[in-house]
Amino acid sequence: MVKARPRPAVNGVASADRVLTVLTAFEIGDTALSLVELVERTGLIKSTIMRLMVSLENHGFITRMADGRYQLASEVMRLNAVYQEALDLERHVMPRLNYLAEQTGETASFYVRHGAYRMCQYRVNSSHRLRLNLQPGDMRPMDEAAGAQALRASYQVGMALEKPYYSRGATDPHAASIALPIYGAQHELMGALVVSGPASRLTEETADTLKNVFFETARDLMRSLGFKAADNKPAAVEPDAVK
After folding, report:
1. Chain centre to alpha carbon of residue 106
2. Which UniProt keywords apply (predicted)?
3. 211-224 vs 89-104: helix crossing angle, rounded to 10
């Protein structure tokens, strides 16, 4: 009679959960984590984490540094590149820009941070003959324009906004704009949604009338990008936040 081998204490699903718990313990701003920090963040015991780290290191997800701390390795970056390619940001952004341009009558754009500048990545021009001339790929300074303010917003600040950023004459004395930061699935800043037009037409009063449709479009775009608000965060871009 063949004696049955004992089943491992951790089944496949539980083991995968523990691996993912360790990986997701790393947060934005972490360069490396010690074993003690990983224990505090995951609730797992040291011996379990050390065993998991061996497997993660073998598969290129984790590197153990000389001082014993752990940092994310190149396989994470490779998967991020695969994710970004699969995301195809344009197909999420462009329908919302077309909608905003139609609803507001002004130019709708999506800006991203590019070093010390902000870059217009996508744009749908206003149907008005009097409009701002800017093309995708054009750079603008990180000044006090609404789009720049949105690109500097932390997640905590961005999610607490009661109205979009508004600027008038910041980059161009004849231009005005409103903007909201856009966050992705990991609460990372993806870019800024911007509506811009001549200052004579896009006044602060006019911008206020566009607030609801602007927040609604921002919420829709963020949901499309996989965003879910954390339970303990204020949600200015969640459905009940716009009054």
Report:
1. 25
2. DNA-binding
3. 170
Could you tell me the sign of the dihedral formed by the alpha carbons of 207, 143, 100, 160, in that order?
Answer: negative
Distance CA 25, CA 39 (A): 10
pLDDT of 195-219, one tens digit each? Answer: 999 999 999 999 999 999 999 999 9
- Helical H runs in the chain? 12-23, 35-42, 46-58, 74-87, 89-104, 146-151, 155-158, 204-209, 211-224
Q: Which residue is listed with tokens 């870059």? A: 119
Please give the structure tokens belonging to residue 143: 């000044």
- How many Cα atoms within 13 Å fall on the side-chain side of residue 102? 7
Residue among 137, 152, 146 at smallest CA distance from 196: 146
Q: What is the pTM of this model?
A: 0.62
